[in-house]
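Hi F.,

I've been meaning to write this up properly since the lab meeting, where we talked about keeping a consistent format for the predictions we share between groups. The idea is simple: the sequence comes first, exactly as it goes in, then the structure tokens exactly as they come out, then a line or two of notes. No screenshots and no reformatting. I'm using this chain as the first example so we have something concrete to point to.
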Amino acid sequence: MKRYVILIMIFTALFAAGCSSEKEADSSDITGSAVSPYQGKKILYIDSYHQSYEWSKEITNGIKTTLEGKGIELKIHSLDTKNNPSEEFKQQAALEAKNIIEEFQPDVLIVSDDNAMKYIVQEYYKDAELPVVFCGVNWDASGYDAPYSNTAGMVEVVLIDKAIEEVSKHANGNRVGFLTGDLLSEHKNAEYFVKYLDINLQETSFVKNFEEWKNAFLDLQEKVDIIIMGVPAGIENFNEQEAEDFILENVKIPIVIEHDWLIQYALLSYSKIAKEQGEWSAETALRILDGENAGDIPVVQNKKGKIALNLKMAEKLGITFSPELLKNAETIYKT
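Output, unedited:
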């Protein structure tokens, strides 16, 4: 009888040990590795625009990639202010975002681009307890009295001067015009093209609708030697295919553009890499979660860039790109 009792005790002990090991394995499989030091932490990312907008999409991609596997709960909210640029809408969208912040209670808030910075951070969270990481703020955050005691950030500087330098080899002069939507960020760009990049900006056209855009394009070509084409977001009734066809039919001078995903509207782009903004913001958020004070982290500028070329437009203008430029281009548009 004692032998049976001993055997039962041994079997029970082995079974319990096996169950314990199985539970540990299940726990390891759930986390993928040792429990993250960030487990249970929350980050809220507020995008000024909308997630189908390429710039926002790539910033989000950078944030998600950097935070992947960290055990952090990431919530994303878009203000949609490119599609709805009125002052009333921006203020209401910011108020709704503030309610989301208060409900979600993030450990760190990440915001991208000027509208989120102006209408949310400056309005409601200047020098607050909540740590904020901003990115995509055009050129200089001092316009919002930033940085604050609770903020770290990456300002967004364009690399359009490098594009102008390249196409100027094929231009008749150095007079530059700027055609874009009537957006806060684009007005700021025009100011800083001159202030920081020393671009000889002679003409600016901030348009509200597609018909204005077409007329301004034709008009600018009679007044300048190079056109900087801005983003079409916010231009009412803008038709992408019609715009591309219109430009190709009427183009007479080199056009440069900031974003490579809009290369169909230009000869050359030397563009920022949006993902860099997201990656830096998420890495900085992790530094704050590790104990650094957001206000002690210096504001930085984006540095990475990529070249895109439009061979179809080059052919129309009678321009031949150098072999070196073709080799260095990340995107070559032909269709």
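Notes:
The chain has two domains: 42-157+273-301, 160-272+305-333.
Confidence is low (pLDDT under 50) at residues 1-33.

If this format works for you, I'll send the rest the same way.

G.
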